[in-house]
Amino acid sequence: MDRFSLLGGLNRRTFLQVSAAGVVTATALGGVGRAQAEPYSKFTWISPRGTLEVLDDFGYWIGKKMGYFDDLGVEAEMQPGPSDGTATVKFVDVGQADMGFPSPGIFSFALENGMKLKSAYHWGALDTFSLAFRKGEGTNDLKTLEGKTILLGSAAWQSIVDPMLAVHGVDITKIKYVEAGWPTWGTALAAGQGDAALAWEGLRAEWIGSGLDFEYWLGVQRSPLFANTYVVRAEDLEDPDKKDFLARYLRAWSMGLEFATHNPMAAVDAVFEQFPSLASNIGPELGATSILQQINVVRGDMSKRKGWGDHDMAAWQTFFDEIYKLEQISNPIKAEDVCTNELIGPANEFDHDKVKADAAAYELPAELAAVDIEAVRSHLFDQAVS
Predict the structure, then answer these.
(1) SsuA/THI5-like domain spans which residues (predicted)?
(2) What's the CA gap between 108 and 126, in Å, rounded?
């Protein structure tokens, strides 16, 4: 199978025409209306998942609940976006959102299609992505997947899986991908419609809550790659007012992430308050499992990072070099041209002791306080293929 056939020749013109609700449009020549260089009228962050009812964005919800955004004079909106895997970059590019949250593969796909975006805050220091298998069918030797079928929720996710496999020596031309739909690709795996499925940390716990109990090759344990990042229009970083806003916005996010490391269950509480249906679907214990999985990804080795959101430029360069070899991009990319750490200092300039004290003082509801967080932490990787 041609490794690009699933993405169907999405050049810049047709790429911008693809939209779940027809929101992003293009002329016959591929032109689009862009946001003008003026202060944000309404700052919008857009999800890559087609939903906000997950624990992944815990840093925002606890930061909002604790008043960190308000204290910094930041007013922002969260949007779920279409489930199309490329929407999170597409909407930012045309000015219908201001910050997206793509995987590295989707970010590189945007760059390949001429989108003038930059990664401003690297959320996921470790690789969140994994491969799910039916019980007893998993493997830690990814080369055994050659000739087999991997299920995806969106065709665009192939740009996530290809480099993940390639760095482990897999011939990706021998992999068959099937778009099994959002949110049904996990159900499709359980029903036998494929050999493996893309998954990620946090989702593992949510799938258990949905009755989907798999075993996993875990990227967080075995991959040299990393997870999603926050991207903005490159031109916004040249505008002093927007750059100041972005620094304050990301500072509030950093405070939320810092808070959650000190009191994970308080962050779960903030998300559950926002989305009661999620709380009823997964409950306190799986909520704890999900958030601990994700905190592990977002922190990485903080002794080697210059704060929340810091880009490891050498690691990013390795990623771009690998996907160039895969012909996922047609021209080499210099990491420092498309990733920036200029906001990381300002984003981490907050009173860390105060945030820690806030976390310690937080009063949990009884059902969340009853969770033995250390016991949950000790079982985080029980689903890994042995």
Answers:
(1) 59-267
(2) 18
pLDDT digits (tens, 9 = 90+) for 294-335: 999 999 999 999 999 999 999 999 999 999 999 999 999 999
Residue-wise pLDDT for 241-272, tens only, equals 999 999 999 999 999 999 999 999 999 999 99
Per the prediction, the chain carries an average pLDDT of 91
Q: What are phi and psi of 176, to 5 degrees?
A: -100, 130
Using the CB atoms, write b or e for 365-385: b if 16+ within 10 Å. eeebeebebeebeeebeebbb
d(CA 232, CA 339): 10
Indicate the Cα dihedral angle 319, 325, 327, 331, nearest 10°: 80
d(CA 295, CA 381): 14
Q: Are 168 and 193 in contact (CB under 8 A)?
A: no
The separation between the first and the last C-alpha atoms of the chain, rounded to the nearest angstrom, is 30
pTM above 0.85, yes or no: yes
SS3 179: strand
Cα 282 to its chain centre, rounded Å, is 20
Exposed, middle or buried: residue 210 (CB in 10 Å: 0-12, 13-18, 19+)?
Answer: middle
Residue pair 288/386 in contact (Cβ under 8 Å)? The answer is no
For the CA atoms of the chain, what is the radius of gyration? Answer: 20
Distances (CA, A) of 216 to 122, 156, 165, 314: 25, 21, 14, 28
Is the separation of the CB atoms in 140 and 242 below 8 Å?
A: no
Kindly state the average pLDDT of the residues 172-198. 97
Joined together, the tokens standing for residue 256 give 């939320």
